[in-house]
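Side project, low priority. Logging it here so it doesn't get lost.
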Amino acid sequence: MSKENADIVKSGEEMWSRGDMEGALALNHPDVVIYEPPSLPYGGAHHGIDGVRKLVQTIGEYWEIGKVKIETFDGGGDTVFNWMRMPARARKTGIDIDLEVLEKTRMLDGKIIETRIFYLDTHAALKALGLEK
């Protein structure tokens, strides 16, 4: 089942990248929780499909994201890891940054139930957003 889980997560990330929000949301369990780093303006826990939809919209208010490069790894069992490089421009400042992110995703019954997101450098992200010196 773990290769199938990795394929589901990878297809979801590809859907997000090309703007297919509804397709990507359909891969989530109704009780999904996404955790963003608490230091970010959209940080914290985002619950359910509507919470994820709102999170994606909020991220879009802060960042213009370019072509995302994704490597997906089967973590075994119900766990999948994504390593992503996201070229992004902060909408407020116009600063370009190359965001590097690790996502740890847990699956339940073939759906994404939890994703924990780890930025390699939240300080650089906050600086690009004009929220830290």
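Brief comment: The longest strand covers residues 96-108.
Revisit when time allows.
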